[in-house]
Structures are given as structure tokens and as C-alpha cells.
């Protein structure tokens, strides 16, 4: 089905931060499959882990214990400070689980229709409930009545949450990205997140963080919320978790732990041996290769070069982000830049019409990070001049 306006290019193979197209051209990957290929392409240890697991066992069922899934759950809980994990197959499903968990949490407290606070410019997925939680009129049009139970507030506006709380006694949770991806690379500040943590605790609400894009090292820490030193009740993961094999996870702690019991939620494929082995290998390789620190450094480098090269350019509104989640907001729509950059051998993305988004693999080398920024900056400048 024509669900994507696809770019006229296909890739045959890759190596690290490089991709080769069917016509033999080489591209520097500044997008990593939308924050998925953290280890880059063709990482030998990941390839071996997947091949070894495939040779042993690909799927059994969640009717049985799954050793690789248990190991992955334990590792994720160690890294995040969470206590329980539910595995699924995508970011939308991970958030669907979180939303169901919040509703069930309320139900167990005697609230029939628990509500969840969500943010302006949020992106949580395209299933009916996650689409309802998402703030994108374009994605919602034509799909009729979406599930209710969401209260939307402006992002980074603490007073708006207090106001929503006064108006809606059934609120049981807040769901947000600490660093919005699809919404244009918007960073929530530490003070806001800490206030939010305190409010959720005081109200008995679940603080649910969507780390589908910002998690697994992308911002320079395992999870974006760790920059603020807070402990959420629920986090959701997907994109970078399996380095390209489809896996999602919803982790819970504190009051959110123990909410789901046998029969309340499930999925056939979730956390199977193959994807769990790939995710476990991803986490191990990241730790072995020091990729968190590296992501932080490469992100700082790219932002610094872009800031220097684009200094004084009138059409550039802001350069922002954290680690290797970087946005360059322009004063005008710039979707054409994707094709302009591709012609020059750079894979980039534009979100919210006017934000150039970079999500390179975490393994990107210093000279590649420098090249990405040095090659991109003049294209942005020329685009702004030409279109002025
Ligand atoms: C991509 C994304 C999702 C949806 O994940 P899918 O795997 O596409 O369903 C949810 N939340 C955030 C923050 C995302 O970036």
C-alpha cells in the first residue's frame, strides 16, 4: 500500500555509518533508519549474535519461559532502575501497553475511565490509542473517532498540568517524551521534569516516559530521563533497542509494577529468542565500546560545527538537541533539503516541515561526524539563499 512517499533510492549494504545504493553510490548515514541502527550497519558482533541465535532457536512462545527475554529484562532493569518488562514489537505497541497499564492502574483504584495527560507536539505511534495520544492533525485526519481518555497540555508548561489536574479528577498518568523527536527535537528541561516527578508522586499518578526515540544511548545516557536524575514509573522503548530487529518494551517500577497480571495483556511475537538476543547484544556492545560517551561527544561536535558554520545565517532559527539527537530549525519549510542532501551523499531527515533532523548511528567516527556537519551546513546556507 502507498503508505509512504518513498524516496527513489534503495540500499544494498552498509558498513558503520555508510550505506551503498543499488546504483553503487555511497552515502553517509545521518539518520540510522530513524534512530534504529545505533551500532551502524553490519556490526560484526551484532551480526554474529543474530546468526548464532537464529541457528539455535528463533521463536517458541510466551506460553513458556524465554531465557533470552529474561536476560534482556534483567539487563534493561539494571540500566534503567525499573523492575518489570513487557516485550512487544514496535514503539506504538510499547506505548499502547503503557496506556493500557495506566488505565488498569486507575481501574484497580476504582477509577473506571482513567485519563492520561499528553503533550502538544507529542508523537507516540499510529495505532488508534497511540494516534489519539499523538499530536499530529495530519496523521489523524480520516480515521474517525479515536479513543478518548487523553488530556493535552502544552509541552514544558508545568502550570498547564496543574490546571488540567484541577479540571480532571480521573487523571492517573502523564505520558511524555523528555526529548521530542517527531515533534521537532524539543528538549524538556531538568527543573520541569523534576517538578513533574514530584507532582506525579503527590497525586499518585504514573510518570510515563516515551523513550522510543531518545532511549538506548542516543542522547549520551542510556535513557533521556537520566539527564534529569528522575525515576519514572513507566518507560517505553523500541527504535534503537534491537538495532533493526523489531522489538519494543514497556518497563514498569514502583506503583506501576504488578499492575498487569496473567491474561491482562500479551502478544505472540513479543520478546522472542531472536529479537531478545539482538537487543541483549546491542546493549552489551554499546557498553563494551563506550558508545554513550561517544554519542555525547559526537553530538557536541556536530552541534558545534553546525553552530560555527551557520553563525549569522538569517534563516536559521535554532540548533538544538542532546547527544546524537539533533535539530536545526529554520524559519521556513525545508522538506526539499532531504533530496538536496541525498544528491550530495548525505542521508538526513526533515520533521515538522522546518526542522532538519540528524540521528546518526552512535558508532559514527569523529571524521564522519565532522564531514556530516561540514557537508550539510553549506547545503542549508545555499537552500536559504536560493529560496530567499
Ligand atoms: C517512532 C516513535 C514511536 C512509534 O514507534 P513505531 O515503532 O513507529 O510504532 C513512538 N514514540 C516515539 C517517541 C517515537 O519516536
TrEMBL record:
Ranges in coiled-coil conformation: none
Subcellular location: Cytoplasm
Binding site for N(2)-acetyl-L-ornithine: 126, 267
Catalytic activity: N(2)-acetyl-L-ornithine + 2-oxoglutarate = N-acetyl-L-glutamate 5-semialdehyde + L-glutamate
Top enzyme class: transferase
N6-(pyridoxal phosphate)lysine: modified positions: 239
Necessary cofactors: pyridoxal 5'-phosphate
Primary location group: cytoplasm
Domain of life: Bacteria
The keyword Transferase is assigned to this record: yes
Sequence similarity: Belongs to the class-III pyridoxal-phosphate-dependent aminotransferase family. ArgD subfamily.
Subunit and partners: Homodimer.
Protein name: Acetylornithine aminotransferase
Native source species: Limnobacter humi
Amino acid at each position: 500500500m502507498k503508505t509512504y512517499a518513498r524516496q527513489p533510492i534503495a540500499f544494498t549494504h552498509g558498513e558503520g555509518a555508510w550505506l551503498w545504493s543499488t546504483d553503487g553510490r555511497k552515502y553517509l548515514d545521518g539518520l540510522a533508519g530513524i534512530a534504529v541502527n545505533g551500532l551502524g550497519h553490519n556490526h560484526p558482533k551484532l551480526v554474529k549474535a543474530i546468526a548464532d541465535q537464529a541457528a539455535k532457536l528463533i521463536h517458541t512462545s510466551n506460553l513458556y519461559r524465554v531465557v533470552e527475554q529474561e536476560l534482556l529484562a534483567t539487563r534493561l532493569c539494571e540500566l534503567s532502575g525499573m523492575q518489570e518488562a513487557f516485550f512487544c514489537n514496535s514503539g506504538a505497541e510499547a506505548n499502547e501497553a503503557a496506556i493500557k497499564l495506566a488505565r488498569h492502574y486507575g481501574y484497580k483504584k476504582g477509577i473506571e475511565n482513567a485519563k492520561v495527560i499528553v503533550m502538544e507536539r507529542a508523537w507516540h505511534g499510529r495505532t488508534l490509542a497511540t494516534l489519539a495520544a499523538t499530536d499530529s492533525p495530519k496523521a489523524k485526519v480520516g480515521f474517525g473517532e479515536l479513543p478518548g481518555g487523553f488530556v493535552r497540555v502544552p509541552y514544558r508548561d508545568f502550570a498547564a498540568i496543574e490546571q488540567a489536574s484541577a479540571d480532571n479528577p480521573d487523571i492517573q498518568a502523564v505520558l511524555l517524551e523528555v526529548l521530542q523527536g517527531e515533534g521537532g527535537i524539543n528538549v524538556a528541561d531538568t527543573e520541569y521534569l523534576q517538578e513533574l516527578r514530584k507532582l506525579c508522586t503527590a497525586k499518585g499518578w504514573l510518570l510515563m516516559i516515551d523513550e522510543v526515540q531518545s532511549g538506548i544511548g542516543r542522547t549520551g545516557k542510556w535513557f533521556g530521563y537520566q539527564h534529569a536524575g528522575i525515576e519514572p514509573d513507566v518507560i517505553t522503548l523500541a527504535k534503537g533497542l534491537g538495532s533493526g530487529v523489531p522489538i519494543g518494551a514497556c518497563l514498569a517500577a514502583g506503583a506501576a509494577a504488578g499492575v498487569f497480571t496473567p491474561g491482562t495483556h500479551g502478544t505472540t511475537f513479543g520478546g522472542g529468542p531472536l529479537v531478545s538476543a539482538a537487543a541483549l547484544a546491542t546493549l552489551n556492545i554499546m557498553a563494551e565500546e563506550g558508545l554513550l560517551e561517544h554519542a555525547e561527544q559526537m553530538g557536541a561536535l556536530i552541534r558545534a560545527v553546525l553552530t560555527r558554520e551557520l553563525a549569522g545565517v538569517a534563516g536559521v532559527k535554532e540548533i538544538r538537541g542532546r547527544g546524537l539527537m539533533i535539530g536545526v530549525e529554520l524559519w521556513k519549510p525545508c522538506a526539499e533539503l532531504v533530496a538536496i542532501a541525498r544528491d550530495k551523499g548525505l542521508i538526513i531527515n526533515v520533521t515538522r516541515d522546518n526542522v532538519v533532523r540528524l540521528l546518526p548511528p552512535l558508532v559514527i567516527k569523529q571524521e564522519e561526524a565532522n564531514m556530516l556537519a561540514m557537508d550539510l551546513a553549506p547545503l542549508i546556507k545555499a537552500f536559504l539563499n536560493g529560496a530567499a
